[in-house]
# Entry
Amino acid sequence: MIRHFKTLACALALTALTVGTASATITVGGKNFTEQLLMAEMTQELLSAHGFDVDKRDGMGSTVLRKAQLNGQVDVYWEYTGTSLVTYNKMSSKGLSPEQTIDKVRKADAKKGLDWLQCSNANNTYALAVKNGDSETKDLKTLSDMAAAYRNGRKIKMAVNAEFPHREDGLIGLQKKYDFDVPRAMQAPMDSGLTYKALKEGEANIALVFATDGRISAFNFRVLKDNKGFFPNYALCPVVRDDTLQKNPELKDLLESMASKIDTHTMQRLNGMVDVQKKSIEDVAHMFLKENGLL
# Structure
Protein backbone atom coordinates (compact mmCIF):
# COMPACT_ATOMS: atom_id res chain seq x y z
CA MET A 1 0.00 0.00 0.00
CA ILE A 2 2.84 2.37 0.89
CA ARG A 3 4.64 1.53 -2.36
CA HIS A 4 1.45 2.16 -4.31
CA PHE A 5 1.00 5.51 -2.60
CA LYS A 6 4.58 6.55 -3.39
CA THR A 7 4.19 5.51 -7.02
CA LEU A 8 0.97 7.47 -7.31
CA ALA A 9 2.58 10.50 -5.68
CA CYS A 10 5.50 10.39 -8.14
CA ALA A 11 3.11 10.10 -11.06
CA LEU A 12 1.08 13.07 -9.84
CA ALA A 13 4.24 15.13 -9.33
CA LEU A 14 5.42 14.37 -12.87
CA THR A 15 1.99 15.24 -14.22
CA ALA A 16 2.03 18.54 -12.34
CA LEU A 17 5.47 19.35 -13.72
CA THR A 18 4.40 18.53 -17.26
CA VAL A 19 1.20 20.54 -17.05
CA GLY A 20 2.94 23.45 -15.36
CA THR A 21 5.60 23.83 -18.01
CA ALA A 22 3.82 22.76 -21.18
CA SER A 23 3.46 26.33 -22.45
CA ALA A 24 7.06 27.32 -21.69
CA THR A 25 9.49 27.53 -24.60
CA ILE A 26 13.14 27.09 -23.73
CA THR A 27 15.87 27.87 -26.25
CA VAL A 28 18.74 25.43 -25.82
CA GLY A 29 22.08 26.38 -27.33
CA GLY A 30 25.18 24.39 -28.23
CA LYS A 31 28.60 24.82 -29.78
CA ASN A 32 29.91 23.22 -32.95
CA PHE A 33 31.63 20.01 -31.82
CA THR A 34 30.46 16.53 -30.87
CA GLU A 35 30.27 16.92 -27.10
CA GLN A 36 28.27 20.13 -27.36
CA LEU A 37 25.97 18.70 -30.00
CA LEU A 38 25.34 15.76 -27.66
CA MET A 39 24.67 18.00 -24.66
CA ALA A 40 22.22 20.14 -26.64
CA GLU A 41 20.39 17.07 -27.92
CA MET A 42 20.27 15.44 -24.47
CA THR A 43 18.97 18.68 -22.94
CA GLN A 44 16.33 19.09 -25.63
CA GLU A 45 15.05 15.54 -25.17
CA LEU A 46 15.07 15.78 -21.38
CA LEU A 47 13.17 19.06 -21.28
CA SER A 48 10.74 17.98 -23.98
CA ALA A 49 9.93 14.85 -21.97
CA HIS A 50 8.95 17.09 -19.09
CA GLY A 51 6.56 19.29 -21.01
CA PHE A 52 8.73 22.11 -22.30
CA ASP A 53 8.63 23.31 -25.88
CA VAL A 54 12.29 23.38 -26.87
CA ASP A 55 13.94 25.40 -29.60
CA LYS A 56 17.40 23.91 -30.12
CA ARG A 57 20.07 26.12 -31.69
CA ASP A 58 23.40 24.34 -31.79
CA GLY A 59 26.47 24.45 -34.00
CA MET A 60 27.58 27.92 -32.84
CA GLY A 61 31.04 29.23 -32.03
CA SER A 62 31.80 29.97 -28.38
CA THR A 63 31.69 33.76 -28.57
CA VAL A 64 28.52 33.81 -30.67
CA LEU A 65 26.76 31.45 -28.28
CA ARG A 66 27.82 33.38 -25.20
CA LYS A 67 26.55 36.65 -26.71
CA ALA A 68 23.30 34.96 -27.69
CA GLN A 69 22.71 33.91 -24.09
CA LEU A 70 23.59 37.33 -22.70
CA ASN A 71 21.21 38.92 -25.22
CA GLY A 72 18.35 36.58 -24.31
CA GLN A 73 18.38 34.61 -27.55
CA VAL A 74 19.47 31.43 -25.74
CA ASP A 75 18.10 30.35 -22.37
CA VAL A 76 20.40 27.49 -21.46
CA TYR A 77 23.50 25.73 -22.68
CA TRP A 78 26.40 23.75 -21.20
CA GLU A 79 29.52 25.83 -20.72
CA TYR A 80 33.00 25.14 -19.38
CA THR A 81 34.28 26.86 -16.26
CA GLY A 82 37.70 27.62 -17.76
CA THR A 83 36.17 29.24 -20.84
CA SER A 84 34.05 31.61 -18.79
CA LEU A 85 36.84 32.39 -16.36
CA VAL A 86 39.59 33.19 -18.85
CA THR A 87 37.89 34.03 -22.14
CA TYR A 88 34.67 35.74 -21.08
CA ASN A 89 35.61 37.24 -17.71
CA LYS A 90 39.31 37.86 -18.41
CA MET A 91 40.46 36.41 -15.09
CA SER A 92 43.55 34.35 -14.38
CA SER A 93 43.24 30.65 -13.65
CA LYS A 94 46.67 30.48 -12.05
CA GLY A 95 46.70 28.43 -8.87
CA LEU A 96 42.94 27.95 -8.76
CA SER A 97 41.40 24.64 -7.73
CA PRO A 98 38.34 23.40 -9.65
CA GLU A 99 36.15 24.55 -6.73
CA GLN A 100 37.73 28.02 -6.70
CA THR A 101 37.32 28.24 -10.46
CA ILE A 102 33.59 27.58 -10.41
CA ASP A 103 33.14 29.93 -7.43
CA LYS A 104 34.78 32.82 -9.28
CA VAL A 105 32.83 32.08 -12.46
CA ARG A 106 29.52 31.77 -10.60
CA LYS A 107 30.00 35.15 -8.90
CA ALA A 108 31.20 36.92 -12.05
CA ASP A 109 28.42 35.64 -14.29
CA ALA A 110 25.71 36.22 -11.67
CA LYS A 111 26.30 39.94 -12.22
CA LYS A 112 25.45 39.37 -15.88
CA GLY A 113 22.21 37.56 -15.20
CA LEU A 114 23.52 34.02 -15.64
CA ASP A 115 23.12 31.16 -13.16
CA TRP A 116 25.69 28.37 -13.08
CA LEU A 117 23.94 25.30 -11.73
CA GLN A 118 25.63 22.27 -10.17
CA CYS A 119 28.46 21.18 -12.45
CA SER A 120 29.08 17.71 -13.79
CA ASN A 121 32.30 15.82 -12.99
CA ALA A 122 33.46 16.01 -16.60
CA ASN A 123 36.57 18.12 -17.16
CA ASN A 124 36.97 18.80 -20.86
CA THR A 125 40.21 20.69 -20.62
CA TYR A 126 42.34 21.53 -23.60
CA ALA A 127 45.22 19.14 -24.29
CA LEU A 128 47.83 18.62 -26.96
CA ALA A 129 48.44 15.12 -28.22
CA VAL A 130 50.86 13.26 -30.45
CA LYS A 131 50.48 9.91 -32.14
CA ASN A 132 52.41 6.99 -30.73
CA GLY A 133 54.80 5.76 -33.41
CA ASP A 134 55.43 9.17 -35.01
CA SER A 135 59.22 9.52 -35.31
CA GLU A 136 58.97 13.33 -35.27
CA THR A 137 57.43 13.43 -31.80
CA LYS A 138 58.50 10.15 -30.16
CA ASP A 139 60.72 12.03 -27.67
CA LEU A 140 57.96 14.43 -26.53
CA LYS A 141 56.34 13.60 -23.21
CA THR A 142 55.46 17.01 -21.79
CA LEU A 143 54.51 20.46 -23.03
CA SER A 144 57.97 21.62 -21.93
CA ASP A 145 59.44 19.04 -24.33
CA MET A 146 57.22 20.40 -27.09
CA ALA A 147 58.20 24.00 -26.32
CA ALA A 148 61.89 23.11 -26.47
CA ALA A 149 61.38 21.44 -29.85
CA TYR A 150 59.82 24.61 -31.28
CA ARG A 151 62.56 26.79 -29.75
CA ASN A 152 65.12 24.56 -31.46
CA GLY A 153 63.48 25.16 -34.82
CA ARG A 154 62.03 21.70 -35.34
CA LYS A 155 59.34 21.71 -38.01
CA ILE A 156 56.44 20.23 -36.11
CA LYS A 157 53.00 20.96 -37.56
CA MET A 158 50.23 21.65 -35.04
CA ALA A 159 46.59 21.03 -35.98
CA VAL A 160 44.33 23.48 -34.12
CA ASN A 161 40.77 24.74 -34.36
CA ALA A 162 40.04 28.27 -35.51
CA GLU A 163 39.72 29.69 -31.97
CA PHE A 164 42.72 28.17 -30.19
CA PRO A 165 45.49 30.40 -31.67
CA HIS A 166 43.60 33.55 -30.60
CA ARG A 167 42.62 32.65 -27.02
CA GLU A 168 44.44 33.58 -23.82
CA ASP A 169 43.49 30.17 -22.46
CA GLY A 170 44.73 28.73 -25.74
CA LEU A 171 47.89 29.18 -27.80
CA ILE A 172 48.51 32.82 -26.84
CA GLY A 173 48.77 32.07 -23.14
CA LEU A 174 50.42 28.69 -23.67
CA GLN A 175 53.29 30.25 -25.63
CA LYS A 176 53.85 32.80 -22.87
CA LYS A 177 53.77 30.17 -20.14
CA TYR A 178 56.18 27.76 -21.83
CA ASP A 179 58.27 30.37 -23.68
CA PHE A 180 58.00 29.20 -27.27
CA ASP A 181 56.44 30.23 -30.56
CA VAL A 182 54.63 28.17 -33.16
CA PRO A 183 55.41 29.76 -36.54
CA ARG A 184 52.33 30.58 -38.57
CA ALA A 185 53.49 28.12 -41.24
CA MET A 186 53.46 25.34 -38.64
CA GLN A 187 49.86 26.07 -37.58
CA ALA A 188 47.10 24.19 -39.40
CA PRO A 189 43.71 25.70 -38.45
CA MET A 190 40.67 23.52 -39.13
CA ASP A 191 37.34 22.50 -37.63
CA SER A 192 37.72 21.04 -34.15
CA GLY A 193 36.76 17.51 -35.15
CA LEU A 194 39.29 17.40 -37.99
CA THR A 195 42.35 17.82 -35.77
CA TYR A 196 42.06 14.16 -34.71
CA LYS A 197 41.89 12.99 -38.31
CA ALA A 198 44.88 15.14 -39.26
CA LEU A 199 46.99 13.63 -36.48
CA LYS A 200 45.81 10.09 -37.15
CA GLU A 201 46.61 10.33 -40.86
CA GLY A 202 49.98 12.05 -40.43
CA GLU A 203 48.93 15.44 -41.76
CA ALA A 204 50.01 16.99 -38.45
CA ASN A 205 52.47 16.00 -35.74
CA ILE A 206 50.63 17.55 -32.79
CA ALA A 207 46.92 18.15 -32.44
CA LEU A 208 44.64 20.10 -30.19
CA VAL A 209 42.33 17.63 -28.45
CA PHE A 210 39.84 17.73 -25.62
CA ALA A 211 40.26 15.54 -22.56
CA THR A 212 36.81 13.97 -22.84
CA ASP A 213 37.19 12.91 -26.47
CA GLY A 214 36.86 9.18 -27.12
CA ARG A 215 39.25 9.28 -30.07
CA ILE A 216 42.33 9.83 -27.89
CA SER A 217 42.56 6.19 -26.86
CA ALA A 218 40.86 4.84 -29.99
CA PHE A 219 43.48 6.43 -32.27
CA ASN A 220 46.50 5.56 -30.08
CA PHE A 221 47.28 9.17 -29.19
CA ARG A 222 49.50 10.27 -26.32
CA VAL A 223 48.50 13.41 -24.41
CA LEU A 224 51.48 15.62 -23.56
CA LYS A 225 51.62 16.34 -19.85
CA ASP A 226 50.81 19.93 -18.91
CA ASN A 227 53.74 19.97 -16.48
CA LYS A 228 53.38 23.67 -15.64
CA GLY A 229 49.63 23.45 -15.07
CA PHE A 230 48.66 26.02 -17.70
CA PHE A 231 45.25 24.81 -18.80
CA PRO A 232 42.49 25.65 -16.33
CA ASN A 233 39.75 23.30 -15.19
CA TYR A 234 36.98 23.01 -17.77
CA ALA A 235 34.14 21.50 -15.79
CA LEU A 236 31.02 21.03 -17.93
CA CYS A 237 28.08 22.86 -16.34
CA PRO A 238 24.52 23.89 -17.22
CA VAL A 239 24.19 27.68 -17.38
CA VAL A 240 20.74 29.27 -17.38
CA ARG A 241 19.61 32.84 -17.73
CA ASP A 242 18.40 34.12 -14.36
CA ASP A 243 15.09 35.38 -15.72
CA THR A 244 14.46 32.02 -17.40
CA LEU A 245 15.16 30.16 -14.16
CA GLN A 246 12.86 32.41 -12.16
CA LYS A 247 10.01 31.69 -14.56
CA ASN A 248 10.85 27.98 -14.78
CA PRO A 249 12.36 26.85 -11.44
CA GLU A 250 11.85 23.20 -12.45
CA LEU A 251 14.84 23.56 -14.78
CA LYS A 252 17.27 23.45 -11.87
CA ASP A 253 16.38 19.94 -10.70
CA LEU A 254 16.12 18.59 -14.23
CA LEU A 255 19.47 19.91 -15.39
CA GLU A 256 21.29 19.08 -12.17
CA SER A 257 19.94 15.54 -12.26
CA MET A 258 21.51 15.16 -15.69
CA ALA A 259 24.77 16.78 -14.58
CA SER A 260 25.06 14.30 -11.71
CA LYS A 261 25.24 11.43 -14.21
CA ILE A 262 28.15 12.85 -16.20
CA ASP A 263 31.89 12.51 -15.60
CA THR A 264 34.97 12.55 -17.82
CA HIS A 265 34.83 8.81 -18.52
CA THR A 266 31.13 9.05 -19.44
CA MET A 267 31.77 11.85 -21.92
CA GLN A 268 34.71 9.97 -23.47
CA ARG A 269 32.40 6.99 -23.99
CA LEU A 270 29.54 9.04 -25.45
CA ASN A 271 31.83 11.07 -27.70
CA GLY A 272 33.54 7.88 -28.86
CA MET A 273 30.20 6.31 -29.78
CA VAL A 274 29.59 9.22 -32.16
CA ASP A 275 33.07 9.90 -33.49
CA VAL A 276 34.50 6.38 -33.60
CA GLN A 277 31.51 4.03 -33.76
CA LYS A 278 29.60 6.48 -36.01
CA LYS A 279 26.33 6.35 -34.10
CA SER A 280 23.99 9.28 -34.45
CA ILE A 281 23.88 12.16 -31.97
CA GLU A 282 20.17 11.46 -31.44
CA ASP A 283 20.64 7.74 -30.72
CA VAL A 284 23.50 8.29 -28.27
CA ALA A 285 21.67 11.08 -26.46
CA HIS A 286 18.53 8.96 -26.09
CA MET A 287 20.53 5.96 -24.90
CA PHE A 288 22.26 8.03 -22.21
CA LEU A 289 18.99 9.45 -20.87
CA LYS A 290 17.30 6.05 -20.84
CA GLU A 291 20.15 4.14 -19.19
CA ASN A 292 20.38 6.76 -16.44
CA GLY A 293 16.66 6.80 -15.69
CA LEU A 294 16.19 10.37 -16.88
CA LEU A 295 13.33 9.53 -19.25
Q: What stands out?
A: The first strand starts at residue 25 and ends at 31. Residues 2-21 form the longest helix (20 residues). Confidence is low (pLDDT under 50) at residues 1-23. The CA atoms of residues 87 and 168 lie 7 Å apart.
